[in-house]
Amino acid sequence: xxxxxxxxxxxxxxxxxxxxxxxxxxxxxxxxxxxxxxxxxxxxxxxxxxxxxxxxxxxxxxxxxxxxxxxxxxxxxxxxxxxxxxxxxxxxxxxxxxxxxxxxxxxxxxxxxxxxxxxxxxxxxxxxxxxxxxxxxxxxxxxxxxxxxxxxxxxxxxxxxxxxxxxxxxxxxxxxxxxxxxxxxxxxxxxxxxxxxxxxxxxxxxxxxxxxxxxxxxxxxxxxxxxxxxxxxxxxxxxxxxxxxx
Length: 246
Ligand code: ADP
Ligand code: MG
Hints:
With 246 residues, the protein is of the alpha/beta class.
């Protein structure tokens, strides 16, 4: 069963000069399976953020249909953006509790803080956090609402390599323990191969699908950088059209 069915005929923005329109997405069809981890890879300005905003129902100004989850209208969608967007006047824990339903147990917050190694920092204010810690808080905040679908828009950009690696591993641990359908946008092909069940390569604007590739490396071997690198080289050889999209 699909968790997300996307059929966008067109998405336009007003043109900057106010003459005509700026076509961002044209005839985009995608199906994401329930529990699948999909990475979207495409050039800057191709329309990836636009697509996530449409799926998150933050943007309803498009032609087409999107179905999310079993119940569609009520499906919970978690979003993780490039910028962690934490409230500076609230502690780490308060930033997380803010998104919970009143009926939800707080036990999940303790559990998520533990997995993300932030238990000792829960009373700290965001200004005291490193970027890697802030990213971990934003991941907890998205998981805390127990969403059916998680949308992640280049969430690990500008982290140094060891920190990005640590946050990716923690994310995979959370995802393994509580499987969600994930749509993860990235420019980094190594990151995409490490994380995804399937890679979807998207064209420059107006965005459409160029290639869909299943990552066949067993998850237990993904931490091995040379295994990921061999797979990456093979992709670039077998699918030369993706080179211009990175
Ligand atoms: P990506 O996330 O892949 O870098 P975006 O979805 O941000 O791409 O943008 C796709 C295209 O739509 C770009 O050409 C961008 O300039 C344009 N665009 C994005 N948001 C707006 C907006 N609010 N108004 C006008 N044009 C926009
Ligand atoms: Mg973007």
